[in-house]
Design brief:
- The structure is a single chain.
- The strands form two sheets. Strands 1, 2, 3, 4, 5, 6, 8, 9, 10, 12 and 13 form an eleven-stranded mixed sheet that branches. A two-stranded parallel sheet has the order 7-11.
- By secondary structure, the chain is α/β, with parallel strands linked by helices.
- It is globular, with a radius of gyration of 19 Å.
- The protein has helices at 17-25, 53-58, 75-84, 143-148, 176-181, 226-243, 264-286, 297-310, 317-332, and strands at residues 5-10, 30-34, 49-51, 89-93, 97-99, 110-115, 120-121, 157-160, 163-170, 193-195, 199-200, 207-210, 248-257.
- The chain has one domain (5-336): Spore Coat Polysaccharide Biosynthesis Protein SpsA, Chain A.
Length: 345
């Protein structure tokens, strides 16, 4: 029986131990694996539904018909399928993230945590470890300062967080520069930290929970590199979410990453656009005048992409994909029922 709880991942590999463990642990969730052209045609995993290319072609989605192949942005099709089918909460991950016992055990849009008392960039990892480490997408020009200072946090309170990023132990989400120069696993200590308007930190797509009022912001841009698509999404999501008076939460590690094989040099090449533009993007987006009407969060997102197109950071073709996405979101969101956490657990 559908519960309204969805886990979305994308894969080009046969089911790894991470996927099998998620499927075994979360039988009360609908788990969608989005295929791409490199996904084995005989891919199968109990309790996981594969969205094959054929099913994606038959999906009544404007976006799915034009989403680029061989790109992480195909994960968008999984989001849209979940929304069309009445999702009330969406969790996303990747096929190399192994869940811990506390994975998705706490579901509530209201989060008890401590707020970062600072404007500007915040290296959120500093509140979870004393290691010299930073999240992927954090501007290189701000790293040293972030490691030399420690931002103050408010007293514990409850915040409205439609986007919640949970950390990953082991080989967490860091950039190629970190991996090329540093070795060893990371274990984060438990904490819950909130960022609000004026404070920025990249978040990724490895272990993130989204609630309905932020569903439109799930959009992963299809014309940017694999290493930047979820990072630049996070910048736009923060700008648009803050405008509605909501916050982003960062919580303790609930997964462990046994990372798939990567070429670190290729990762570095794919991240160059971010090294050059991450700080600039937030400067550009922070100056935009947006509506504070929660119903305008989708149009606000498009305005952000327009600004990045004007700055020649994102290509013109992205606006077409954004329009297709927003058209689907408007149509499919009619199936979303906003419910309390008690109806989900």
């Amino acid at each position: 029986m559908p519960t309204g709880k969805y886990i979305i991942l994308t894969t080009i590999n046969y089911p790894a131990q991470a996927v099998k463990t998620i499927a075994k642990m979360k039988k009360d969730w609908t788990i969608l694996a989005v295929a791409d052209r490199k996904t084995p045609p005989d891919w199968s995993c109990q309790n996981v539904r594969l969205l094959s290319l054929e099913e994606q072609r038959e999906f009544d989605s404007n976006f799915a018909r034009e989403c680029p192949f061989d790109h992480y942005a195909r994960k968008n099709i999984g989001y849209l399928k979940a929304i069309r089918d009445g999702a009330r909460v969406i969790a996303e991950t990747d096929d190399d993230n192994i869940p811990k016992e506390n994975f998705l055990t706490s579901l509530d849009q209201s989060v008890k945590g401590r707020l970062v008392n600072k404007s500007g960039w915040e290296n959120i990892y500093r509140h979870f470890t004393d290691k010299r480490i930073w999240p992927r997408g954090y501007p290189l020009e701000h790293i040293n300062r972030s490691l030399e200072t420690h931002s103050l946090l408010s007293g514990e309170s409850v915040f409205d967080c439609p986007i919640q990023q949970y950390l990953v132990d082991g080989d967490p989400d860091v950039d190629a520069i970190y991996r090329l120069t540093t070795q060893g696993d990371t274990k984060f200590r438990p904490n819950t930290v909130i960022i609000s308007e004026g404070t920025f930190c990249p978040f990724n797509s490895q272990n993130t929970i989204w609630w309905p009022e932020a569903f439109a912001l799930l959009y992963l841009p299809g014309s940017v590199s694999f290493r930047m698509t979820d990072i630049w999404r996070s910048f736009i999501a923060q700008i648009c979410l803050y405008k509605t008076g909501k916050q982003v939460a960062f919580g303790q590690a609930t997964m462990f990453q046994a990372r798939n094989e990567h070429s670190l040099v290729r990762d570095f090449a794919d991240e160059i656009a971010g090294y050059l533009n991450n700080a600039r993007i937030m400067e550009l987006l922070s100056d935009i005048r947006l509506s504070d009407d929660p119903n305008q969060i989708g149009p606000n997102m498009r305005i952000c992409y327009e600004r990045l197109v004007e700055a020649q950071i994102v290509s013109q073709e992205e606006l077409h994909l954004v329009d297709l996405w927003l058209k689907d979101i408007k149509q499919f969101s009619k199936n979303i029922e906003i419910t309390t956490v008690e109806n989900l657990t």
